[in-house]
Amino acid sequence: MYGKDTELVIDLHRDAVGNGDTYGPTVMVNGQRVAQLMFVIGTDGGGSEHPNWVQNLKIAVKIQEKAEEMYPGLFRSMIVRNSRYNQHVAKGASIIEVGATANTLEECLLSMQCLANIIEEVCK
User: Fold this and answer.
1) Which of 2, 63, 104, 110 is the most exposed place for a label (fewest CB within 10 A)?
2) 27 in helix, strand or coil?
3) Are 117 and 70 in contact (CB under 8 A)?
4) What is the pTM of this model?
5) What is the pLDDT of residue 124?
6) How many CB atoms lie within 10 A of CB 52?
7) φ and ψ at 96, to 5 degrees?
8) Are 29 and 110 in contact (CB under 8 A)?
9) Best CA proximity match to 79, nearest among 100, 66, 63, 95
10) Which residues contact 75 (CB under 8 A, 6 or more apart)?
11) 10: phi > 0 → left, psi -120 to 50 → alpha, else beta; which?
């Protein structure tokens, strides 16, 4: 795919969308409830210099495609925005939203285990 020399910079967030006590997107993985993930990719559409945004997007798409093979439904739909979110500082930079305000710590930790497995496969 991309190889061992691929740069990845992942800015992990918890999605603050929705009511704090009621919205916690999950998917079942191996019989366990896991927090869903979501990429947020910035572009140069807002006028700020961001020469690597297409490469960042391509890497995020590869990761999300591998995730769908390994853990169907783990990722929510990707968001692409006209802000660069400091993603111009490195190739392979992205934001990943981990669940939302109502997800448990356990759900989020389980999704991080899945993400680590996915990245290992993509970067072989």
Assistant:
1) 104
2) strand
3) yes
4) 0.90
5) 79
6) 19
7) -125, 120
8) yes
9) 95
10) 36, 37, 38, 39, 64, 67, 68
11) beta
* Widest Cα–Cα separation across the chain: 45
For the chain, which domains are there? Answer: 9-122 (3.40.630.40)
> Where does the pLDDT of residue 118 fall: very low under 50, low under 70, confident under 90, or very high at 90 and above?
very high
Token duo for residue 73: 């439904």
The pairing of beta strand 32-35 with beta strand 26-29: antiparallel
Token digits of residue 4: 């061992």
The residue with tokens 């992205």 is: 94
CB-CB contact of 81 with 43 (8 Å) = yes
Would you call 103 helix, strand, or coil by DSSP?
Answer: coil
Residue 18 has pLDDT above 70, yes or no: no
- What is the pLDDT at residue 20? 63
What pLDDT band is residue 80 in, cutting at 50, 70 and 90?
A: very high
Residue type (1 letter), 49: E
Other CB atoms within 10 Å distance of the CB of residue 58: 14
